[in-house]
Amino acid sequence: MIRGKVLGGSSSLNHMTWNRASNDYWDNFGRLVDDPGWSWSGVERYYDKVQRLVFPPDEHDDSKEVIPSAHGRGPVQISTTGFHTNIDQRVLNSTRDGSRYSFNPDSNAGDMVGIAWLQSSITSRGERSSASTAYLHSSVLHRKNLDVVVNARAVKLSSSQNNANRSDGSRKIRIDTVEITNTPDSPRRKITAAKEIILSSGAFNTPHLLLLSGIGSQADLANPSLNIPVLVNSPGVGKHLADHPLLPNYWLVADNNTFDDVTRYPDVEERWIKEWQKERKGIMVMPHAGNTLGFFRHPEGFRGGEDPSSGKRSGNTEMIYLNGWAEFGQPVPRTGNYLTILTSVVSVTSLGQVTLRSSNPFDPPVINPNIFSTPYDIDSMVQVMKDAEDLLNFNATDSPWKDYIISKLNPFTTDAERADYARNNSVSISHGSGTVRMGSQHDHEAPVDSSLRVKGVKGLRVVDASVFPKIPECHPQAVVYVIAEKAADLIKEDHKE
Description:
alpha+beta, Glucose Oxidase, domain 3, FAD/NAD(P)-binding domain, 2 domains, three-stranded antiparallel sheet, 12 helices, 20 strands, about 25% helix, about 15% strand, Glucose-methanol-choline oxidoreductase N-terminal domain-containing protein, FAD, GMC_OxRdtase, flavin adenine dinucleotide binding
């Protein structure tokens, strides 16, 4: 599973897709944690504080691709594509007013449902805009109160107090020490916090570090194979792992202007890279996830069961449209040109977990995404696969795809065939979240409260995707930024002098 061990974290290596989630998602977030400060009205100002819309790298007029008033004035730069492809207009011409395939003028304006131009964290110079480039500029890096320790791994949290190995429920332990090292054989260095420790290690490493430190399920930690002293019995640590499954669907097309040759031939790729290095233009400024995407509600009569989404402004499923063969375990064929539609289930119900492999911090945790473990999720993937076929409808005389698509690869005749293909070819989209989820004080399965503080201890807070009470029905990058900006205010308020 991919993790961002680099300045900027996963924002420095993700696909840069920018979705802030629907208003319904945020309002449901507030209800789940019993704190209206996490509803959309409570976090909207943080979204405005995070990002700003900039001109695309090719400087084309994007006024019909976004709603400028839905964006703020923050440091993270957001743009639509700087390199259009032959499928973009075909995708938009496939939208049908009043249907499930309607056009959405801006998927970051509160309602995510419909087909929209994809927005990405790409600067007007065709470069990635990450947490590192947006926030850690030179004046910040030169601050006297900031030290960045590289080539180091946090391996344990502990307390310098004499009650470090005891928590009887009447007294909270103060976690004030982080142990770091570089290799299993290197000496450990202890760093003590004067006020508090903030974990931002992500949905896999944050629960891993908490468990190694004795914060987790007492029954699991007391296992003789681990024998880790329990500081806090917090059974929800590592549980509730949610992720979005992603599935490539392929069509053979009658078009030589796809990016398949870029994938096939290193010299073609090198030529485009040189153009980007010189001009900051060309195919290399195109969003990694394509130029258009769509979020969709299930049709009436969907057999998969009750709708688990946050509301009607959130999708159940997603499609991403790519002008070529997207390699997800299946290398591009030696010949031919292709269209890929990536389908995903975004209102997932399958939940996995992160557990310890051993008490050695250098042994990776056991990550079980548990994808497609519920009938709803596999039925949803089958539905969106059929939706993709229906959207293209390339045999119809009025289809924008007529004479463009030659044939579908893996043409299915039954839902059972689709489900089998989905189970065998879906991958994680790397949206893991919820493993140290936020909840109310009365939610004993939630390890973190609505101020992001780890329950049962003092001086420890979590600020990353692991705290999501529910996985967003979208790409979660912007949601993490919003949580981080709100966390900054919560932290300052707690330490106001």
